[in-house]
Design goal:
Blueprint lengths: L1 H31 L11 H10 L3 H12 L3 H12 L3 H13 L28 E7 L2 E7 L4 H12 L3 H10 L5 H11 L2
Antiparallel strand pairs: 1-2
């Protein structure tokens, strides 16, 4: 029996050494793998925000449905196809979105360009008076939607023979009727 005791002790020591070595290598290997090590400079909350911003509303809804169902691979595939990011970036993004859920935020619409046109009258702080007379007839238009530039355009239209356009422009920039505007424009024609 003593002859078996020494080999059993050696076998137990070797087995213990193998277990300790395997455990040490396992811990060391997990620290060096890129997916287990946190990436420096990448905040997971910020990664989740930027990742969510790349998705439209339908993709966002489907991705979170897959995450909720525990279908991580399908969620990564959906994100990969929707954004065109790499597979590793898609995996990291889905992981960040799962850990830090983000609400859907639609992209803000760009404001429409402001056109400098006399079609859109604006109100001025002062009242502008335009006077036209011919012989004994005098007409006056007073409005806070007129200024020298707009009145100049109206006079140019009237003098070029486009009286209807001039009358319409005058009614847009004042509180007079089209009939009164036509009477005023008729006095401007020379």
């Amino acid at each position: 029996m003593e002859s078996l005791l020494v080999p059993l002790l050696i076998l137990a020591l070797v087995a213990a050494g193998v277990l300790v070595g395997a455990r040490t290598l396992g811990h060391r290997g997990s620290r060096t793998r890129p997916e287990a090590a946190p990436q420096p400079g990448k905040d997971p909350v910020e990664l989740a925000r930027t990742s969510a911003a790349k998705l439209n509303q339908e993709q966002h809804r489907r991705l979170y449905a897959l995450i909720a169902q525990g279908q991580a691979m399908a969620a990564i595939k959906l994100y990969f196809e929707a954004t065109g990011d790499g597979l590793r970036a898609s995996r990291d993004a889905v992981g960040a979105l799962a850990a830090h859920p983000q609400p859907f935020r639609p992209e803000p619409a760009e404001p429409a360009p402001v056109e400098d046109d006399d079609d859109a009258p604006q109100r001025f702080a002062y009242r502008y008076r335009a006077i036209a007379s011919k012989g004994d007839v005098t007409r006056e238009v007073s409005s806070n939607m007129l200024n020298d530039e707009i009145y100049g355009r109206i006079r140019t239209l009237a003098r070029s023979g486009d009286t209807e356009a001039a009358a319409e422009a005058l009614t847009r920039h004042s509180d007079i009727s089209i009939k009164q505007a036509r009477e005023f424009i008729a006095l401007l024609e020379d």
